[in-house]
Every structure is written in structure tokens, then in C-alpha cells.
């Protein structure tokens, strides 16, 4: 099978076939050293692009090193990935003509705060390389964060109003800046909601590709 790497309209470089490929063909293996997820997080903490492929329960990843790492994502792909005994294969899910770019659905997860916009150009493009499941999870997380932020803001406004009231009423000028009765309770409550705001999904913002399960 003739696979080549050249520039792609989807993203940077892509992987193309120079010969026709029949549906069901095991096209190429996603090769590279297998490392722990924690090691991958450390290794790529500040790198915007990674070629990590999560395998098994996700505690291990393949650190892509080989031609398969150049295969781009598409929401309307001609290939899919299959994990067989800890190895990941790119399989053709339809007949592919010579000259076509190979692509599969990355179904990204564990991306921290980063977006993963999709440029695949498919009619049914979902706009992101994250899996549909991950997009739902992120949407819920964003809603929860917005709610928490709104609650904190409301509390601060209330606190400021109390402060103003105390100053204006002119009672004991030295303690005027401290909100009286409530001062013992509020800071601890705020701390709770702030710490949950910072909670992130496991990992340090590295995107990993997930094998599509059948
Ligand atoms: Zn797309």
C-alpha cells in the first residue's frame, strides 16, 4: 500500500493513499512508544499539539511516531480506528480511491480548557474534534461554572452593599469596613465555590485521541 504525507486542506500535513483501498482493509498501524497518561501529561504540558492516542481504559497512551500520526480528523471519515490487543489500527470503512486523503474521527477527550475546532469541511461537521459525548460533558461543565461565577458575583455585590450600609449608618467608625454579623461565614463559603470552579477534568490539558469502539 502506498501512503504518502503531503500538505492538506484540513490541517497542515495529511496522509494520502497512492493506490485504491478496499473497504475493510487494515490500512496502517498507529505506532509509537506506549507510555503512562501521567508521563504524557508531563511531557506535553506546554505543547499545543500532541499525537497521543489513548488505549485500553485510557491510563496508557501511544505517543504517535510514524505515518499514521499524520492522518487528519474528519467528521465524515473514510477510516476508523480499532484497538486489537493493545495495538491500534486504521481501518478503511469504505472504498477509498487513489489520491484520497485518509481520515478518521478523532473523538477527542480530556482536553482541559482547550478548544479543538474542526476544519474538515464535511456537510455534517460538528465543528469540533471532540467526541459528541465529550462536547456534552464540556457544555454541562461550562454551565455549572457560569452558575458558580454568577453566585460568587451576587454574593460580592451583597457584601459590598452591606459594607456601604454600615459606613453610611455611621456605627462604630473603626469597624465600619467589616460586614458585621456575616463576616465569619462568607469567606469560607466563597472559598468552597472558587475551588470547585478550578476543578478540571483529569489531565493537564492534553488532547488524546480515543479509539472508536464498535
Ligand atoms: Zn468536522
Which descriptors would you attach to this protein?
binds zinc ion, alpha+beta, Beta-clip-like, 2 domains, 11 strands, 214 residues, 3-stranded antiparallel beta sheet, elongated
Q: Brief overview, please?
A:
This protein has helices spanning about 35-45, 130-170, 185-200, and strands at about 5, 15, 25-30, 35, 50-55, 60-65, 70-75, 80-85, 85-90, 105, 210. It is of the alpha+beta class and about 210 residues long.
Account of the protein in words:
The structure is a single chain. The chain has 214 residues and is α+β, with helices and mostly antiparallel strands. It folds into 2 domains: 3-131 and 203-209, Beta Complex (Beta-clip-like), CATH 2.170.270; 134-198. 27% of the residues lie in helices and 21% in strands. Helix 2 (132-169) packs antiparallel against helix 3. The longest helix is centred in the C-terminal third of the chain and has 38 residues, at 132-169. It is elongated. It starts with a strand and ends with a strand. Zinc ion binds at residues 75, 118, 120, 122, 125-126. The site of zinc ion (ZN) has 6 residues, from loops.
Helical proportion? 25-40%
Radius of gyration: 25 Å
DSSP strand (E) fraction? Answer: 15-25%
Gross morphology: elongated
Structural class: alpha+beta
Mean pLDDT: 81
Report the CATH C-level class of the largest domain.
Mainly Beta
Number of E-type strands: 11
User: What do we call the CATH homologous superfamily of the largest domain?
Assistant: SET domain
Q: Sheet bearing the most strands, described?
A: 4 strands, mixed
Small-molecule binders here are: zinc ion
- Give the domain tally: 2
Supply the CATH architecture of the largest domain: Beta Complex
What string, H for helix and E for strand, traces the elements in order?
A: EEEEHEEEEEEHHE
Number of distinct helices: 3
Across the major sheet, the strand order is: 4-6-5-11
CATH topology heading of the largest domain: Beta-clip-like
Amino acid at each position: 500500500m502506498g501512503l504518502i504525507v503531503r500538505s492538506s486542506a484540513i490541517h497542515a500535513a495529511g496522509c494520502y493513499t497512492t493506490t485504491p483501498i478496499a473497504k475493510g482493509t487494515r490500512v496502517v498501524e498507529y505506532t509509537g512508544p506506549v507510555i503512562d497518561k501521567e508521563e504524557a501529561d508531563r511531557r506535553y504540558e506546554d505543547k499545543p499539539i500532541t499525537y497521543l492516542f489513548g488505549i485500553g481504559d485510557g491510563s496508557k497512551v501511544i505517543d504517535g511516531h510514524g505515518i499514521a500520526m499524520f492522518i487528519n480528523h474528519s467528521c465524515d471519515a473514510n477510516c476508523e480506528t480499532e484497538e486489537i490487543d493493545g495495538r491500534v489500527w486504521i481501518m478503511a470503512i469504505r472504498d477509498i480511491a487513489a489520491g484520497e486523503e485518509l481520515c478518521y474521527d478523532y473523538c477527542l477527550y480530556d482536553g482541559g480548557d482547550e478548544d479543538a475546532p474542526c476544519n474538515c469541511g464535511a456537510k455534517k461537521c460538528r465543528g469540533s474534534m471532540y467526541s459528541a459525548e465529550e462536547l456534552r460533558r464540556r457544555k454541562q461543565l461550562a454551565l455549572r461554572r457560569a452558575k458558580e461565577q454568577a453566585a460568587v458575583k451576587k454574593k460580592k455585590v451583597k457584601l459590598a452593599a452591606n459594607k456601604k450600609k454600615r459606613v453610611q449608618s455611621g456605627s462604630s467608625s473603626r469597624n465600619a469596613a467589616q460586614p458585621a454579623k456575616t463576616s465569619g461565614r462568607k469567606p469560607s463559603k466563597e472559598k468552597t465555590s472558587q475551588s470547585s470552579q478550578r476543578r478540571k477534568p483529569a489531565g493537564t490539558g492534553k488532547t488524546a485521541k480515543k479509539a472508536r469502539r464498535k
